[in-house]
User: Fold this.
Amino acid sequence: MGIFDKIKGAIWGQAKAAEAAPAPTQSTAATANPAPAPAPTPAPSATTAATSPATSAPSAPVDIASILDAAVKKSGQKLDWKHSIVDLMKALGMDASLSERKELAQELGYTGDAGDSAKMNMFLHKALLKKLADNGGKVPADLLD
Assistant:
């Protein structure tokens, strides 16, 4: 698993955890109401099961900003994920070492000098946010410029 996949997994995992929190109250409400209508729906959903993976990601875009803001708050550190790839990775509890960032740079197609970490970090931040947006993440437009 590459660094980008770890970052995406951490963000999407937190999104699913936030989504799952209200789900128990909904499922208990659904269980409390005898509703035979939901029982027949699995037959049509079996037909949509083939499209399920394609529709599951784009159906509800993951709000990258809110997830990373919450991760920063949870970390208890003063991190500026909106401007720093290192802070973004730290907010997710990841290793933000130079070697990890160089590996991420390779994954994201960085062709510049990996020895110029400032330039590489700026590329990584923009490229990462763009790739997250391309994969179903909702990224603030001002961070994609």
User: Anything to note?
Assistant: Residues 3-139 form one domain. DSSP finds eight helices and two strands in the chain. Residues 3-20 form the longest helix (18 residues).
